[in-house]
Amino acid sequence: MKLTSYTNYALRSLQLAALKSPDLVRVDDVAKIHNLSRPHIMKIVHELGRAGYLETVRGRGGGFRLARPPEEIIVGDVIRLTEGPLDVVECFNPEKNTCPLMGICILSKKMQEATAAFMSVLDDLTIAHIAANRGQLMDRIAPLEMPRTETMGR
User: Fold this and answer.
1) Fewest beta carbons within 10 Å, which of 7, 9, 23, 123?
2) Residues 6+ apart with CB under 8 A from 21
3) DSSP, residue by residue, 58-118
4) How many CA atoms lie within 13 A of 8 on its CB side?
5) What is the pTM of this model?
6) Among residues 62, 54, 59, which one has the least CA distance to residue 26?
7) If you average pLDDT over every residue of the chain, what do you get?
C-alpha cells in the first residue's frame, strides 16, 4: 500500500495545525519544514479548507488552523478525501477491470481484506493522536521554521 505525497503532506499540514493550535500556521512554514513548493501546499490547504478540516485566513498575517477539534479529524477520512478510491489492483474497480478472474479470484478477495484492514487502522487514528508527542515534534521542526517578522510601528 502506498499513499501519494499529496496525502502525506495533507496529513502533515493538519498535524502542524494541531501542534500550533490555536495559532495560525503559515503556508511558507509548511513548505519550508517539508521542503515543498508553496503552490503545492496552497493546493492542499485549499482542498482541506473546502472539506471543512481547515479554516483559512487570507492576507498579511494570514494562514490556516484546524476548523474542528483534532480529536474529530479521522486520518482514514482525510486519506479517502485526498486519495479517492483505493483501487490497489484493477479488479477493485469493475468499470476499469480487464481481468477475467473477477469475482472468483482469491487474490483479489485477500487484497480487498488487506485494504480494509489498512483503512481500519487509519480509521482509529485522529490528528490528535499524531500530534500527541507535541514537545518532540516541535523541537524537531523549530529549527526548520521561518522566523516571524514583526511589522514596524505596532
Assistant:
1) 23
2) 65, 66, 70
3) -STT-EEEESS-GGG-BHHHHHHHHH-S--SSGGGSTTT---TTTTT-HHHHHHHHHHHHH
4) 6
5) 0.85
6) 62
7) 89
